[in-house]
Write a structure and sequence with these properties.
110 residues
């Protein structure tokens, strides 16, 4: 078994989640995952919850290509389905990524 350790500059990803009417989507679930699935010591998928202003932050993100997705319920209540959704791709290359906006839209239903 061989291990190789190298230095990688980590970055911060931050942005906001907005409802279809442009209002902040506080409480939205935000998921950050590598576009190419891989195994690492930190796990592949990170999650965050948007604050009341719709803001989210991911710290210590290593360089890679990621998919950033958000979901929220259009109706209030703990049992309401998460029927609003947004997604974008993000490239992290050793510098912070800020100002991202995920604008939620109604998810397709089968």
């Amino acid at each position: 078994l061989e291990f190789r350790v190298s230095h990688a500059t980590v970055s911060r990803i931050e942005g906001a989640v907005l409802r279809p009417d442009g209002a902040p989507a506080g409480g939205a679930r935000v998921i950050l995952e590598p576009r190419e699935p891989r195994v690492n010591l930190e796990g592949g998928v990170r999650t965050a919850t948007a604050d009341p202003a719709g803001r989210f932050v991911f710290q210590n993100v290593p360089p890679d290509e990621y998919r950033l997705a958000a979901s929220a319920a259009s109706a209030a209540g703990a049992q309401a389905p998460r029927d609003l959704w947004a997604q974008t791709d993000v490239v992290v290359a050793g510098v912070d990524v800020s100002g991202l906006t995920l604008s939620l839209a109604t998810a397709a239903q089968l």
